Amino acid sequence: MKSSRRSFIKKTTALGAAASLSSLPFSLLGNIQSDPIKIGIIGLDTSHAPAFTKLFNAENPKPELAGFRVVAAYPYGSRDIKSSMDRIPGYIDQVKEQGVEIVDSIEALLQKVDVVLLETNDGKPHLEQARAVFKAKKPVFIDKPVAASFADALKIYQEAEAAGVPMFSCSSLRYQKNVHAVRHENKIGEVLACDAFSPATLEPSHPDLFWYGIHGVEILFTAMGAGCESVTRFSTPDAEVVVGTWKDGRIGTFRGMRSGKHDYGGTAFGTDGNLFFGPFEGYEPLVVQIAEFFRTKKSPIDPIETLEIYAFMEAADESKRRGGEMVMLREIFQFNS
Where is the secretion signal located (predicted)? Predict the structure, then answer.
């Protein structure tokens, strides 16, 4: 994150196809410090918070997670999403059982920790919360959704870079075994196409796909990579279908299921065969990536790709508003730059 803010904005407007701010190879074991890296959590309104704490604070953690300790948490994220608020008391009890101190402000938290997990389930306050973390110069992982609008997501990445603070954000589905293998292990050769799916339940305070559709869209982009140029959306009584066209002519689709019980997955099609994704395999693969990020201060994901995910979802909303017309992702970038 050493390029200027001006150059970063220029790259995001152009979709940043040729540049990567943060894609460097990493070692899962890294250099474990004798003193643990102290982790603070903002937001105890999601199951991710106690789940991540349990992995980091285990009596005998995996080698990749050794050298860390969640030491403090500020419970409040959403104050207007009842399904999130109602979970806070129970999650407070769970993390306290893991030896975590509960504090009464983000400022108090930041004085006690080296790095931050921003776990607030509600994306609306993420920009304000992230600004406090950036001011304190603490590396931060921001859980999905990175924000409740593309405009706020772009501001978060721009302000992190301007402050010189390492950050990244993603869905845990990015690091499921087969999803990761298609992208990073050449499992099926060159990826020709991908069809991804996930639940896509709604939260009125967030754009349509940002709440749960993000999981399936992240699967799609993990397989396909950045470079989507246009989006067309179709609605059925039980699903939202979004078709993306990549600059090299490849087609990727996301199907967001509205009703019934559905898993997370998809199929990637490559020059050397096909590979099915799913089912959900838990949070540990993501937490291992977070640990490596906290050690190296290097994001495993190019910010351009993450921003393109949110532009894809916002373009899908715009396509629906226009009755299924094709929407170019550059419209989303240009409008918000």
Answer: 1-19
pLDDT value of position 282: 94
Domain boundary among 117, 145, 171: 171
User: What is the predicted pLDDT for the residue at 32?
Assistant: 46
At how many degrees (to 10) do helices 303-321 and 329-336 cross? 110
What are the angstrom distances between the C-alpha of 174 and each of 164, 190, 196, 212? 25, 18, 12, 14
Please give the tally of structural domains in the chain: 2
**Of 51, 54, 56, 21, residue with least CA distance to 37:** 56
Asked whether residue 30 carries a pLDDT value surpassing 60, the answer given is no
The string of pLDDT tens digits covering residues 266-323 is 999 999 999 999 888 999 999 999 999 999 999 999 999 999 999 999 999 999 999 9
* Global confidence as pTM: 0.88
The answer to whether 230 and 326 are in contact (CB under 8 A) is yes
Cα–Cα dist 160/21, whole Å: 12
**Angstrom distances, CA of residue 268 to CA of 45, 111, 197, 222:** 33, 45, 12, 10
Same structural domain, 125 and 38: yes
> What residues are paired with 42 via a beta bridge?
74, 118
- Torsion, CA 174, CA 178, CA 180, CA 182, rounded to 10: -120
How many residues can be counted in the chain? 337
- In tens, the pLDDT along 171-202 reads 999 999 999 999 999 999 999 999 999 999 98
Rg over CA atoms, the chain: 19
